[in-house]
Amino acid sequence: MTNEELKSKIEVDFKDEILSAVISAQKEAIITVAPDRYVALCQKLHDKGEYFFNHLSSLTAVDYPKENKITVVSHLWSYKHFHQVTIKVDADRNNPKVPTLENVWKSANWFEREVFDLYGVVFEGHSDLRRIMMPDDYKKFPLRKDFADDGFIVKPS
Amino acid sequence: MTDLLLSQVKVGGESQFGTDEYVVNLGPQHPATHGVLRLIVKLDGETVKETMPVLGYLHRSIEKICENRTYPQCITYTDRIDYVSAMSVNLAFALATEKLMNIEAPARAQWLRMIFVELQRLASHLLWMGAFAGDIGALTPFLYGLRERERILDLFEMTCGQRLTYNYIRIGGVMIDILPEFVPKCRAFLDYFEPKVDEYEDLLTYNPIFLERTKGVGIIAPEVGINAGVCGPSLRGSGIACDVRKQQPYLYYDQMKFNECIETAGDCWSRYKVRMNEMRESVSIIRQCLERLEPGSFEAKMPPVLKAPVGSEIYSRIESSRGEMGVYLVGDGTAKPWKSKYRCASFSNLYVLDQLTKGWKVADIMAVLGSLDMIVPEVDR
What we know:
By secondary structure, chain A is an alpha/beta fold. Helices cover 23% and strands 29% of the residues of chain A. Chain A has helices at 3-13, 35-47, 108-119; strands spanning 18-23, 29-33, 55-64, 69-77, 84-92, 97-99, 122-124. A five-stranded mixed sheet of chain A has the order 1-2-5-4-3. The longest helix of chain A has 13 residues, at 35-47. The model of chain A is unreliable at 153-157 (pLDDT under 50). In chain B, strands 1-2-3 form a three-stranded antiparallel sheet. In chain B, helix 3 packs antiparallel against helix 4 (86-101).
């Protein structure tokens, strides 16, 4: 399936579950979904034969302070049909909470830990939500845009 | 020592030689972890019950740094993500940026990129082979591997002046054209190198000790592997076709004749065999590229300041030496990326380590870790 066909098919099949489906300027199919439908949609995309997105290629987040949201972005790939789709889910920046994809793809475990560590997004239902890159007692979320860079310089005591 | 052991035997007691569970810390400074990786291992006697990788000792926040650098400046940092296979990461970033800004690199640049990325794959696999064999006690292949890698690095040095972090593949082309003597030297190297792969295989592949350490050890079941995000040669060792060069061709890989190397057993030996076969395929790809290398410009005409449109985003993947390498970029209308994410094969491959080592002995951790071809700067970024 080309990305256009994929986008139209998802738009028809999941019209109640998704918020929007677009083709980006770079010709990628991008699906936006509400947090409460997020896992169910991903489970269907993973299981259904004509989609069969068996590979979670990447999961990350993007910070938009002006719109007061953090978008969790995951990229799915099918080893069977060779097609790619981007799933986006928005979270409130002050209290970001998104359900975990760990029960669909095990690989989400570490990806989500990384997003939790660097953006502070809490993945509800995650089995092992700890910091992964930064020290356990670290307080800040470095990849947020308002991260103050005083931590970069260690002042001599 | 004997006294100590004897003192633990309870004479007349019921449980003689009972084992205790204990926790061992491997690393972060350990010669077999290929860098500053720390593993906390729970052991019962010598049997591994649980392995917990602790990451972050090499976290340099490259993704954050890239948000504060212009696109061409970022390429320098991509070198440091995977210093053993720097060309691949250069390429991944350059391709993503080109797609983001609709830049088309000229044909000669594309051919040069393919030649250098495949040479890099050879160099990376050679170092991996040496380190992997060294991990499980065979030290000779390391010397063999580095001997040939040296000649590849000479080719790189001749072209771009660097031996490790090249910064050679740039947005819109490459840094500089090759010298006239590059092509004959590269051909001479390939002629020299091709029989060497058989030599390594003579040394290792069916060596009884090597087989004993790798055959049947650390098996990744195909379904488990896909679900846990294993990719690249490590997944191809389990019989899954997952080569990005075949599935989502970039550069001119769709015009190349090469086989995707697949083994089915899923153990350390299969992963080893996949990489050995990949070296042969890379040699064949480089030969085809050298045949078709055409004269022309090595860089595209580009605006002086590269800016990505507002709201543009791209997720672009390549097959690096270690597996799937993805770059996610979000543009915001300025010369700097709003967001840059590097999806690295080592990071997702390391996740299965716990499952693979459960029930095996301590020494097998090193065999499994080595066979995954993990490199720490890519894990931590």
